[in-house]
Design goal:
It is built from 20 helices and 30 strands. It is α+β, with helices and mostly antiparallel strands and 754 residues long. Among the domains are: 532-591; 599-744, Heat Shock Protein 90 (2-Layer Sandwich). The strands form seven sheets. It has an eight-stranded antiparallel beta sheet with strand order 1-12-3-2-7-6-5-4, with helices on one face. α8 packs parallel to α13 (489-504). The chain is globular.
Length: 754
């Protein structure tokens, strides 16, 4: 709701989801905008009414530095502030008063195209909530919101507290907390108002109301104010021809007539929004404010609301993480019992279905099926065996990866409408890469009524001349059928963990894993104590051995024979090797316990950083690096750095005798995963021993030829598999090697998070 659109395209077939809303070419009229470039901060862009704050005309001011053109003092502070702007986000420079006495709030930011942008926002009039106020005056309200958030017992109560706090700070007639659903529909989960505007509490709005590029702007610029829906946009003039100024971070950025018409249809002449962002920067929801008359809110008040929204986001994240941890702990017990039974009986289906309710409870399903080469076993309420086999064949053909989930199977599988009473929802894990073997869980249809803020089937209207927004916000009720309750994150994780246990762990160790579930806290303490003992009780003696050996060589070296000095060298080298071995063991043991923190990033940047870090090892060697373009990935960058660090370091080590050495890094993008490879023309290896490559302390070359402790590739394999990927290698002795590893695409299989 209250979407942000750009200027409408002249092509009526172009929808709002493709409008370039970050470059509207104009601003709102309650302020002025100046953009500068270069070391001298020469004026390059100015809003058309900016002569009100200039000492000369705009045409004369273009190209001139800031201190020569502003009609006010002091400009030195503004110049200094614009010279040290951060890469993203605004900086407040305080009050700027022109020679005529007009007062503005000066706000600066660095635009994505490199301009230093100064916004002079006219101070709000009046003394009510949201008018010009200092942070000191706003602090009590923020502090009170912090205290009340700490006492809220649910996400809904947290959201209600936020809505009330933001309305108290800003004075808007209605404040909503709007949560995005997985498909980007939005639901109003909390509201605070004075009755001047209708209630939207509990209503759902279609994803088309806030298109993708608008959601992106909400992620990078969390504040948005539109003071008057009837404003006349003020165009931005430029010193020279070129692309329009990027206003991604601008507070005054203008919006499209489509959006302004949307506001008028909604009966809200003024609106403000503050983003609610997850810890990784993704959009969770919005605090959306509306007023029945034009309204301006100070920058300080907007910042206070932003702080309240951030406090809310932290509280929500903490509750979600706690709920996930509790659910995982509960489900781990079930997983352990299932694994123990599989170990005892030896057959997958017999072990999983020895107590069928355990398998159902693992994911909260009403029915389950275990499909293997040997047959198909059913439990609970499921489709017929023939239908289960059809679903499995469809999954195999679709190539869904390791885990597949949907709460709306009828939208994906033809003919699944007839299975609504048993299989509207499907969660499946593949337990074989060769045969169509699956564990499948089913959920029945849950018929429910969803109240929409207007008919979602008609989110926008097209006319030959331009786009029109949705005109009606009257409550529209929809009866939702053929959908199950959605699968929770903990349930999906439990299914994934069960799959990993089945295919990745020798079944004879499953009983130990089940016992480990019940002793998890004790074992964690023992592991921590062991790590401490290794790092302090073993590493320190090794350092002492090396140190005293060096002292002995320095002080008694002349008295020693050549044989004695060789003995000392051997002692020091052995102690250093043992120290490195302890470090490697610690790193390997911690790798399985360190939580993954996946984000979206460019792996090419990471590869470049690793190459730079390895330059000292390159010395004067000539290496022909061939780095192919790579798509953005969803992974833990710190973990993936270790993968590339090991693979590239190995490639450099094993091409030591090649001139030139050729090292290639590339990737291929599939439907469900991205495959990377690191290829070299070095020593290679005999494929007869490829099964040893990723084992701990396994080496295919003598230590005298190539240094190392034989644990790096084991670390690489553990990292890749924790991300849900695969790793393998190919090589020919004397001709080089290539290491392949895959990472699931974000939409195909989420990375492990614990």
């Amino acid at each position: 709701m209250s979407p942000d659109h750009a200027l409408p395209s002249t092509d009526p077939t172009v929808g709002c989801d493709r409008e370039p809303i970050h470059i509207p070419g104009s601003i709102q009229p309650h302020g002025h905008l100046l953009a500068f470039a270069g070391v001298d901060l020469g004026l390059m862009h100015a809003s058309a009414a900016a002569e009100a704050v200039l000492s000369t005309s705009i045409a004369t001011a273009f190209g001139q530095p800031i201190e020569r053109i502003l009609a006010g003092r002091p400009t030195e502070a503004l110049r200094d502030g614009l010279g040290r702007l951060p890469a993203t986000g605004p900086m407040q420079f305080g009050r700027f008063r022109t020679a005529s006495g007009a007062a503005f709030q000066a706000i600066g930011h660095r635009s994505p195209d490199g301009r230093a942008v100064l916004e002079l926002e006219a101070e709000a009039e009046g003394d009510g909530p949201g008018a010009e106020a200092t942070l000191e005056a706003l602090y009590p309200g923020v502090r009170d919101a912090f205290a009340r958030l700490g006492r809220a017992a649910s996400v809904e109560l947290l959201a209600t507290t936020v809505a009330a706090a933001v309305r108290q700070i800003t004075g808007f007639d209605r404040v909503l907390v709007y949560r995005f659903e997985p498909n980007w529909d939005g639901t109003v989960i909390a509201e605070d108002g004075n009755g001047r505007l209708p209630s939207y509490l509990g209503l759902r709005f279609p994803a088309s109301d806030i298109p993708a590029q608008a959601r992106h702007l909400y992620e990078v610029n969390p504040q948005r104010l539109i003071a008057d829906a009837d404003y006349v946009p003020v165009p931005i003039r430029s010193a020279q021809l070129g692309p329009p100024l990027d206003l991604t971070f601008a507070s005054l950025r203008s919006v499209s007539p489509v959006h302004l018409e949307y506001m008028r249809n909604m009966g809200t002449p003024a609106s403000m929004s503050v983003s609610i962002l997850r810890g990784d920067g993704r959009l969770w929801g919005l605090v959306s404010c509306h007023h029945a008359a034009p309204r301006r809110v100070s920058f300080a008040a907007r910042n206070a609301c932003d702080l309240v929204a951030q406090m809310f986001a932290v509280r929500v994240a903490a509750r979600e993480e706690m709920a996930q941890a509790e659910a995982r702990a509960r489900l781990k017990g079930l997983e352990g019992r299932l694994l123990a039974r599989m170990t005892a009986v030896g057959r997958l289906e017999d072990g999983l279905l020895a107590v069928p309710q355990n398998l159902l409870d693992l994911t909260g399903a009403a029915g389950a099926a275990v499909l293997t080469e040997g047959g198909c076993a059913l439990a609970g309420y499921t489709p017929s065996e023939a239908e289960v086999r059809r679903i499995a064949a469809w999954l195999q053909e679709r190539g869904v990866g390791e885990v597949f989930e949907t709460s709306f199977l009828a939208s994906l599988l033809p003919g699944a409408e007839a299975l609504a009473d048993t299989a509207s929802g499907l969660l499946a894990v593949s337990v074989s890469r060769i045969h169509p073997s699956f564990v499948l869980w089913f959920r029945p249809e849950v018929v429910r009524t969803v109240s929409w803020g207007g008919d979602p089937r008609k989110p926008a209207e097209a006319a030959p001349d331009r786009l029109h927004p949705r005109r009606s916000f009257a409550v529209w009720a929809e009866t939702v059928k053929q959908r199950s309750l959605p699968w929770g994150a903990a349930e999906i994780a439990a299914a994934r963990d069960l799959r990993s246990a089945i295919v990745g762990v020798v079944l004879r160790t499953a009983e130990e894993r089940a016992a480990l579930t019940g002793r998890l806290e004790q074992v964690n303490r023992e592991l921590a104590a062991f790590s401490y003992s290794v790092s302090h009780d073993l590493r320190a003696p090794f350092r002492h051995i090396v140190g005293f050996a060096e002292l002995l060589r320095e002080r008694e070296g002349e008295k020693l024979s050549d044989r004695g000095r060789r003995y000392i060298d051997t002692i020091a080298q052995a102690a250093e090797t043992a120290g490195r071995l302890v470090d490697a063991l610690l790193n390997f043991s911690q790798m399985g316990r360190t939580a993954l923190v996946p984000i979206e990033f460019d792996p090419a940047v990471l590869v470049a950083e690793v190459r730079q870090a390895l330059e000292p090892e390159q010395a004067d060697r000539h290496i022909d690096w061939r780095i192919a373009p790579m798509p953005a990935i969803w992974a833990d960058p710190a973990m993936l750095r270790q993968v590339f660090q090991n693979l590239l370091s190995n490639a450099m080590k094993y091409t030591r005798d090649r001139d030139p050495a050729v090292i290639e890094v590339g990737c291929a993008t599939g439907e469900a995963e991205i495959e990377f490879h690191v290829r070299d023309n070095g020593a290679g290896f005999d494929m007869a021993y490829v099964h040893k490559l990723f084992g701990v302390f396994q080496r295919l070359h003598r230590a005298e030829e190539f240094e190392g402790v034989g644990i790096g590739l084991a670390n690489v394999q553990r990292i890749v598999e924790r991300h849900g990927g695969r790793i393998w290698a190919e090589g020919r002795l004397g001709e080089g090697a290539v290491f392949h590893f895959t990472l699931p695409r974000r939409g195909a299989s989420a990375a492990e998070t614990t």
